[in-house]
Amino acid sequence: MIDLKKLLKDRRVLVSDGAWGTELAKRGLGAGEVPERWNVERPDEVRGVAASYVAAGSDIILTNSFGGTSIKLARSGLAGRAGEFNLAAAELSKKAAAGKALVFASVGSCGEILEPYGELTPEKAQASFAEQVRWLAEGGADGIVIETLADLGEARIALSAAKESCRLPVVVSMTFEKGPGGIATMMGVRPEQAAAELTAAGADMVGANCGAGIEQMIEVTRALRAATKLPLWIKPNAGKPELVGGRTVYRETPAEFAARAAELVAAGAAVVGGCCGTTPEHIRLMVEAVARLRAAKR
Q1: What is the pLDDT at residue 19?
Q2: What is the DSSP-derived secondary structure letter of residue 29?
Q3: Are the beta carbons of 286 and 258 closer than 8 angstroms?
Q4: What is the model's pLDDT at position 5?
Q5: Rounded to two decimals, what is the model's pTM?
Q6: pLDDT in tens, 157-213
Q7: Percent of the chain at pLDDT above 70?
Q8: Environment class of residue 140 by beta-carbon count within 10 Å: exposed (0-12), middle (13-18) or buried (19+)?
Q9: Is pLDDT larger for residue 191 or for residue 246?
Q10: Which of 52, 81, 88, 163 has CB atoms 3.0–4.6 Å from 280's, for a disulfide?
Q11: CA 139 from chain center: how many Å?
């Protein structure tokens, strides 16, 4: 098992990768397609995305498995292929990493609402998360990232399933947005609440991804840091999404993105990377910015 604390102590700050969905779309993934299916049908393209982030200097890369629970795959009639897709996802990223980066496997929401507001039972969700995590661990993942969640109940279930199914470090990252009532997830969970409860539930790292650009994410990071001593995993979007001609656009340039790296780290981030709209160039410049921070601290 990776000693995250030692790794972070040695390097001070780690850099993760950037967006996967937008990068796969550039390679031909169409709207409505199941990205995880590409792990077996177009593996070179998936491996290419992973390799592009390794080349950019990422210390950690993810896997193409965000929607890989059998519950979510069932929407496309692919529940029976969950094992195949997740195993391939981990193996592809491990091959691309080639020992130069760690691979933390991506686990997203089941895509259904838990009881009593929805029909998904905690037992069914737990079983689906556990199945996915076992296959990702079998494929060689170095860690698990439960990401982009809004429901703290689902986050706790996914964390419990991961802890019971593998001995890898587990990150839990939620998505917060700023509204009239302040910063919270779509389900009303505030950063301080998420950090405190997930720490108590046994997460190895907590954090935030998606939902906001780096400016707002600095504020989220401060709120998380106030409620936990765990390392923080922070992956902002490349700015706020805008709809232009029916297409979602992220306008924050790589230089603008990387220019706020020092503020993000000062706010408490231990792992920094990018989410929607970020590219290998965003990450390359982030790597350079973090290298300057490391050098300054020496």
Answers
A1: 97
A2: P
A3: yes
A4: 74
A5: 0.95
A6: 999 999 999 999 999 999 999 988 899 999 999 999 999 999 999 999 999 999 989
A7: 98
A8: middle
A9: 191
A10: 52
A11: 18
The pLDDT score that the predictor gives to residue 172 is: 98
Q: List residues bridging with 170 in a β-sheet.
A: 144
The rounded distance, in Å, linking the Cα atoms of 293 and 103 is: 24
**Residue 154 and residue 187 in contact, taking contact as beta carbons nearer than 8 Å:** no
Q: Is domain 4-297 given the CATH code 1.20.1250.20 in the classification?
A: no
pLDDT at residue 1 in the model: 54
Q: Is 212 buried (19+), middle (13-18) or exposed (0-12) by CB count in 10 A? A: buried
Q: What is the layout of strands, in order, in the sheet containing 14-15?
A: 14-15, 269-272, 232-235, 205-209, 170-174, 143-149, 102-107, 60-61
The position carrying tokens 């707002």 is 216
Q: Say if CB 207 and CB 241 are below 8 A apart.
A: no
Tens-digit pLDDT profile for residues 209-229: 999 899 999 999 999 999 999
- Hey, what are 213's tokens? 């650009």
pLDDT tens digits, 61-81? 999 999 999 999 999 999 999
3-state DSSP helix/strand/coil % of the chain, to nearest 5 = 50, 15, 35
Pairing of strands 232-235, 102-107: unpaired
Spatial separation of the C-alpha atoms in residues 43 and 107, rounded to whole Å:
19
Q: How far apart are CA 62 and CA 49, in angstroms?
A: 10
DSSP state at residue 30? P
Q: Which tokens is 119 given?
A: 């029909």
- The structure tokens 């390679």 sit at 27
Coil/strand/helix, residue 289: helix
Other CB atoms within 10 A of residue 3 CB? 10
CB 287 within 8 A of CB 250: no
Cβ–Cβ < 8 Å for 204, 187 = no
